[in-house]
């Protein structure tokens, strides 16, 4: 589509990377992993799509966008948070509010993509945090199918990624460049 578009991602378990690759493939644009990127690596792009995993309400690597917002605010900014659960409107509002200021939320188009959960690939800090969620889930009297699936994910990886989930992102970006 254009080399004025870049997809940037940060992935610990592979789900965000998969979505980022699918988006870049569909849009025929550049793809960059947010390992040692700086704002200067993004300034030549008009549209920046950031894809990052969601961990305890924080989007992995999002400081690249947050801390450099002043330099990037005239760009088309899109953020895709990738999480393991089906999210309610309330939980998404809280998550976006905890990641971005009101000013940033007005400028950044935001999407939630359902990813997966692979306990074996988490670092120690995230294992401790998710252990609290596991204890809470174990104490649920009649777990929903969703809660049971999350509980099962502690012993075997769960993958809920679906290429169709990126279509709203693709449609939005294509409308920007039409």
Describe how the helices and strands are arranged.
Blueprint: E1 5-10, H1 15-27, E2 30-33, E3 47-55, E4 58-59, H2 63-66, H3 69-72, E5 76-83, H4 89-99, H5 102-107, E6 108-114, E7 116-117, H6 124-138, H7 145-152, E8 158-159, H8 167-177
Instruction: State the CATH topology of the largest domain.
Output: Rossmann fold
Helix content class? 40-55%
Strand fraction equals 15-25%
SSE pattern, N- to C-terminal: EHEEEHHEHHEEHHEH
The major sheet is characterized as:
6 strands, mixed
Global outline: elongated
CATH-level-4 superfamily name of the largest domain = Flavodoxin domain
Q: How many DSSP helices?
A: 8
Average pLDDT, all residues: 88
Instruction: Give the tally of structural domains.
Output: 2
Distance between the termini: 11 Å
Which quaternary structure do these chains form? single chain
CA radius of gyration? 17 Å
The top level CATH class name of the largest domain? Alpha Beta
Architecture per CATH nomenclature, i.e. the level-2 architecture of the largest domain:
3-Layer(aba) Sandwich
Please provide a brief summary of the model.
The chain has about 180 residues and is α/β, with parallel strands linked by helices.
